[in-house]
């Protein structure tokens, strides 16, 4: 279960535990947690921190009406039935992504962005961040790029390497605008990643630089 | 109150509340539920007001939403896996996230349900059973001894629900300082897991 060697920073995991992280980043943390029991264990401790802080709050008086109203409602409450959809989804898809996937990764509306890479945009966060899946073919390379904002990546399938090392399933990476990198998928299989980018990616190769004005428009 | 007596009183209280949740789960016991309400509703209300001071209606809504979930999910709560206070905290946090998403000026299509619900529904998982109460006690003791500048940041992040960026703007501190204070605080609380 514990395959990943690259984890979210403590303060990021704490923000997740606190519920103060943008949901796009929370998606990445949640996908990582499915592969990482040590972060799961740490999260439980971080939840204890929240729990203790909450217990230390000065209680705020609740009206008797609210209590009477709620007690009166109890018999009529019923829980929403769980969504049947989840049973049809490929077990490889992390639970946090079920909302975007009907059956499996193959059925998504992939768009080719280079000879080696396909992508599908899943959604936007309220801060404008783009949430997408990237698929790199075996041995394929993503163009060298930097980022205007932070980029969060979780490897869902396969593995890739870049200038800083080799990353496998579950690994969690954050790159900021000072990091320039060229991910290359390993030869044995394609690599699928969840990627959240807070600003447009900047391609740094000579020809690709010509593309930047067009890509930036996607974030307007 | 001396620290030890205080700690004992708190764990007695928690044991009593934990017995209440079992009665709710097994017998839909309304008197037991009322006891849970009396303890947790004022804390949930404060938790909501910490983020939105003066928003009394929002706070009442959150109380109602969280305690509704407590009633409906009581049977799923597993005392050997998670302490009741922590379970309630995660419910309150999840309800607040839902509320903010529904009422945000900035829409997002991301549904938080499947991101956070695993803890709520299934408990933290067997690997987290390890020394649960010892960890909680050391966190409690640690919080009391944190330097103010660190506890202030934890309060912003956990109770006021502020992002690191917002915290940095409000306290007029560089973003890096905010992050390093969170890290230092967690280190003091011994929230560390050997990899």
How is this fold's topology laid out?
The complex is a heterodimer of chains A (220) and B (195).
Chain A: H1 10-18, H2 23-33, H3 37-55, H4 64-73, E1 111-112, E2 117-124, E3 130-136, E4 145-147, E5 151-157, E6 160-162, E7 165-167, E8 172-175, E9 184-185, E10 191-197, E11 201-203, H5 206-209, H6 212-217
Antiparallel strand pairs in A: 1-2, 2-3, 3-10, 4-11, 5-8, 5-10, 6-7, 6-9
Helix pairs in contact in A: 1-3
Chain B: H1 3-27, H2 30-51, H3 56-73, H4 84-103, H5 113-122, H6 132-145, H7 148-159, H8 164-170, H9 175-188
Helix pairs in contact in B: 1-2, 2-3, 2-4, 3-4, 4-5, 7-9, 8-9
What does this entry show, briefly?
The complex is a heterodimer of chains A (220) and B (195). Chain A has helices at residues 10-18, 23-33, 37-55, 64-73, 206-209, 212-217, and strands spanning 111-112, 117-124, 130-136, 145-147, 151-157, 160-162, 165-167, 172-175, 184-185, 191-197, 201-203.
Description:
The complex is a heterodimer of chains A (220) and B (195). By secondary structure, chain A is an alpha+beta fold. Chain A folds into two domains: 10-55, no CATH class; 95-217, Jelly Rolls, CATH 2.60.120.10. Helices cover 27% and strands 22% of the residues of chain A. Chain A has helices at 10-18, 23-33, 37-55, 64-73, 206-209, 212-217, and strands at 111-112, 117-124, 130-136, 145-147, 151-157, 160-162, 165-167, 172-175, 184-185, 191-197, 201-203. In chain A, helix 1 packs across helix 3. The radius of gyration of chain A is 21 Å and the shape is globular. With 195 residues, chain B is mostly helical. Chain B has two domains: 3-124, Orthogonal Bundle (Rna Polymerase Sigma Factor, Chain: A); 146-195, Winged helix-like DNA-binding domain superfamily/Winged helix DNA-binding domain (Arc Repressor Mutant, subunit A), CATH 1.10.10.10. Chain B contains nine helices and no strands. The longest helix of chain B has 25 residues, at 3-27. Mean pLDDT of chain B is 86; it is low at 120-124. The interface between A and B is large, with 65 and 80 residues.
